[in-house]
Amino acid sequence: MDHIGKIERKLHPKEKANVLSKLSFFYTVTLFRKGHKQDLEEDDLYEVLSDYRSKELGDQLEAEWEKEKKRGKGISIFRVLWSCYGWEYFLLGLIQLIIKTTMIILQPQALSKLISYFDHKQTHLTKKDAYFYAGLLIGVNLINCIYVHNYHLAVTGLGIRIRTAFCSFIYRKALKLSPTRLSDISIGKIVTLITKDVHSFESFIHFANDIWIGVVKSAVIFYIIYNKIGVSAFAGMGFFILMLPLQAFMGKMAAGLRMKMCKKTDDRLQLTQETLSAVKIIKIYTWEKFFNKKIAEARRKEIKTMHTIFALKFIVLQIGNLSGKMAFYLLIMTYTWIGNHITAEIVYFVESCLQIVTHTMSILFPLGITQSAELTAAMKRIGNVLKALEIKGESVEPNPTLKPKITLKDATVTFKEKEILHSVSLTMDVGLTLITGPVGCGKSFLLKTILQDYEPTTGGVVTKGRISYASQEPWLFPSSIKQNILFGQQYDELRYKEVLKVCALVYDLELLSAGDSTIVEDRGINLSKGQQARINLARAVYKESDIYLLDDCLSALDAHVSDFIFKECIIKFLRNKLVVLVSHNVNHVKDVDNVVIMHNGSISSCVKSSEISEKEILEDIIDDAEAKKPVDALNEEDDDDDENTKLVTETTKERKVYQEVKQKGEVAFGVYFKYMKFGGGFLVFLLLVGIFAVSQFVHSYADKLVSRWVNLEQKVSDFSFNNITNLTEEQQLKIESSRDYLQHLYTGMIVLTVAFELGSIMSLFAVARRASIKLHKYMIDHIVNATMQFFDTNFIGNILNRFSKDLSAIDEHLPFVIFQVFKAFFVILGVIVLITTVSTSFLLPTAIFFVILAFIRNYYLPTGRSLKRLDAATRSPVVGHLNATLEGLTTIRAFKAESILRDEFDRHQNLYTSASYISQCSLRAFAYCLDTLNTVFIAIVILRFIVFDDVPLAGSVGLAITQAFRMTGIVQWAIRQWAEIENSMTSVERVLEYTGVEQENNQGQATDNWPTKGEVKYSNVYLSYNNSDEYVLKNINFTAHPQEKIGIVGRTGAGKSSILSTLFRLYEVKGSITIDGVDTKTLSLDFLRKHISIIPQDPVLFTGTIRDNIDPEGQYPDDQIWRAVETANLIKLVPSLDYEITENGSNFSVGQRQLICLARAVVRNNKIIVLDEATANMDPETDALIHETIHRNFAACTVFTIAHKLHSIIDSDTVIVMDKGQIVEYDDPISLLQNKEGLFYKMVKKSGLLPPAFA
């Protein structure tokens, strides 16, 4: 439903590239050139490749899932995956096996032959042979270089396709979830599945083939080593085999912990989402610290588990890494212990073979094990959602009918084991049926049962005709107002204009500079409650249907507008339709065809309106005489940020939904510095670098000792070869002691290597953990304490994206990248030093080599960085669209709009996939360039030895060549990881962006025993939402005397809620507001807000207990909370203060939630009370009850009431009438009613509440 629609993009260059261009990644050059000149923008992204389209991938997976369901056995995600992608993946694995096996046979043989050429005692190899083996080595390396990066891109591409398919399928499944299951699963969990769990497929697919290929490769290599050196091979092989069960055990442990961690991540995201959604209420109640603490606690639990997983993962990796070193040590030592002399050919042949095995065993195998463990956990979680109960009912629109009908026969509905509807039998035909009854009697449940959202446990529901639905709580999605009304229906200009007219939206749209192209923010936060309700109704009415289900959608409207819409829209526009209207407005009873009255989930009466007198209806609905007054709504405003003028300055027709401010250029040094600071500071960082440096020194020195040992053995064999047998005893002892010394020193270095490797890991690990915790705390503190302007201009989807995916990157990805960079940097340094110790002539080519590397990196980096940012930015619409969808499932299903929203989700996914894939292409192109350059460097090293032939010892030549080969993978890996650090730091940058948002100024005094009287005085108050000259409030002057009851009335956008927001200092004002003579600007925000109570129109409840919702900070004893519960008439509903409230308070009706908000105000016992249309969603009985409670409990308080129903303010001491941000009338009601030309008089007359004396 995006108001901008599909954007045509350029064709992906890979689609038209030739084979050579694809193999060499030449098709990415244009993108690199563009990225080097300027930052890439969303418009520079290509059309997604045809094989990667979200819809087609989702269709394929869904079809296989359905086939799997029909089999009747337990549904296996693995079998579904295999059906879709198994053979393709297996074929890739087979190619990998063939290439890699060929490589491991050729490379060590060619290398050992080349090194043995430099052994002076050999006679069978000529210089021509040396050139042949050198050519073979370089050629094999070059072919490997071309193959490896294309293979990885193919595997990555497959991973992206699997991720995209699962995201599309999970979204489709979410559209079908039954409300019962959705309340169990939670929105946070589904967001985590799409932002985190599906990425396990991508990670796993990289290593899955390597597990079985690794086994085959290792077997081949051990056979080759055995052929070369005999039984000594078993010492090394045995060590590897011993280590595998330990690695597997740790991997399994990590999987178990992963499940726990994901649950904790869900909890944290759920809490964050609740906090962001209700941030205004949290600020008004001064609960920031409580929610900060709650989220911090959830984060602490998550991090604790996460870092145990980390420790296990790192240890598994290091066991593998060090097992190569240990296996080589055991193998060579065994070889010498059984009486053999080592030679350069044997040592470097074995080392070359073990390098391949070590890579398989130390990196691919453990990663494969841990990724398999993580995938198992992710698949279990995804399976829980995919296998969850779906609602029954087709998403296909039924055919139009002239005789629509709704029939319920003995329908009983239970929700969470509680019976909500009891044996309801009801038949409704064409005409207007009114459903009424007290709060919590099941009216909304009845409508949702007709919509088949809830399936009756007994009995049945049959509907005939197309259905349209308007929900009780307006649901709007982030797009234009026009798209919110059309909601995927064809645009019919005449009908559209007529709907705007009958829903009284014409005047409102004229107020907005962008009219119906105005973008609706998350949850319609930038529109008044009344505007939201009317757009919600307009959507239902615009759709051509036979049945219209309207769930109390007039309760948020003022008398004039409510009457107008009831007559023009519901009675006239929807005549000859089957209309079901839930309402508490007794005035409507006379104009409807049938009246259904509900009590406790049952229908107490169902009659034609002509067959029942008004007296009987009133007696049935209400027992309280007070409520028998005509109930007339007056206004429709909800929040302080309801003034539509705030919106005008920032909406334009082409503003993109979920658009984020994207950083440009390099990641600033300040970002790195802050990360270091959060990790413990500069000194800690230096200490960390020092530990890594010592670790590498020990490692490299061990390699050098092997070279010296080989050279010593060569000297010994030279003596034997030259028949120098008359060595003196002293010379023999000297050689033997040198050999023993080298062996002992080498053993010592191996032990130190193990110690320092583990030490460096644990140190980095501690630093990263500390940085993660502090970054999250810093971000949540700044966001919760941000000014309301921040929330007015930022979507929850965008903020949640940073709390989920960006934080996940900082937690899980960044420490690994830092570790790899440190490790690789020091390994390269060690290699250069070792090569230089063989011949200083390598210094110049090495220097040139690194200059070219740095140039290539700097050329790649701007593009890589831009694409990484685009990857993050294009993810936000996916998360935001999912979030918005999950909040409006009932409406979406009622409108049969699933396919439209699914297509839109797929469009968002396609853009994200396009960004991800081109980012991977550029990364592979970069790695290919580096490896090709590295092959050139190897060629220089090899040819230098053959051409000049001036190095006397084969051990030194072997050392240099094997070290140069070691650089093949590690240089491109290091440079890529170095670039990846900057790419990953964009996540830190994005998190830190939110720590720079403007904060509320909480400085100020706290006065003792204040306020004692409750006098409120406004003097020349002006308010602008965006610090411009467009004022929402202009020159407001009035005084509320102690214990005075003040009613505030006025049309939409008049500024009523804005007055209240200034009282709580949600926005700063010009002018002064004093309470008991103290200027509120001089008080601290917490102190001020704690001393004013509010009962808001939107009753917000949080996941937790009743106690947590009434007194989250634990300030009041239980008996006081029980008194408040009793005062708010909740005693029958609340069995215990520890009674759990589910997500968004879904186990309470809207009216019942409002009573809990009343209990919050009662327990605080403040001198100033604000009622922000508090009884909007109440039936007359509860409305009267609440007003009586307020009158009884707040008699000694100054009470401000934003009038919603006129009877609630007609008895006020003073009435303020607002219009266009100004006070136009201000006096006691009697005086105002004497002015027959006044606004107040006209409102009261219109509502039928005018006393006879003034008629």
From TrEMBL:
GO molecular function list: ABC-type transporter activity; ATP binding; ATP hydrolysis activity
Task: Provide the ABC transmembrane type-1 domain boundaries.
Answer: 97-367, 745-983
Q: Which GO terms describe its cellular component?
A: membrane
Give TM regions: 130-148, 204-225, 231-251, 309-334, 346-369, 682-702, 745-768, 814-836, 842-860, 925-947
Instruction: Identify the keywords attached in UniProt to this record, alphabetized.
Output: ATP-binding, Membrane, Nucleotide-binding, Transmembrane, Transmembrane helix, Transport
InterPro entries assigned to the protein according to its UniProt record, in alphabetical order: AAA+_ATPase (IPR003593), ABC1_TM_dom (IPR011527), ABC1_TM_sf (IPR036640), ABC_transporter-like_ATP-bd (IPR003439), ABC_transporter-like_CS (IPR017871), ABC_transporter_C-like (IPR050173), ABCC_6TM_D1 (IPR044746), ABCC_6TM_D2 (IPR044726)
Domain of life (superkingdom): Eukaryota
Q: How would you describe this protein's topology in the membrane?
A: Multi-pass membrane protein
Give the UniProt subcellular location, in the record's own words: Membrane
Instruction: Write down a Pfam family by its short name.
Output: ABC_tran
Q: Which residues form the ABC transporter domain?
A: 406-625, 1016-1245
The record's listing under PANTHER family reads: ATP-BINDING CASSETTE SUB-FAMILY C (PTHR24223), FI20146P1-RELATED (PTHR24223:SF448)
Protein's recorded name: Multidrug resistance-associated protein lethal(2)03659
List the source organism. Answer: Zophobas morio
Source lineage: Eukaryota, Metazoa, Ecdysozoa, Arthropoda, Hexapoda
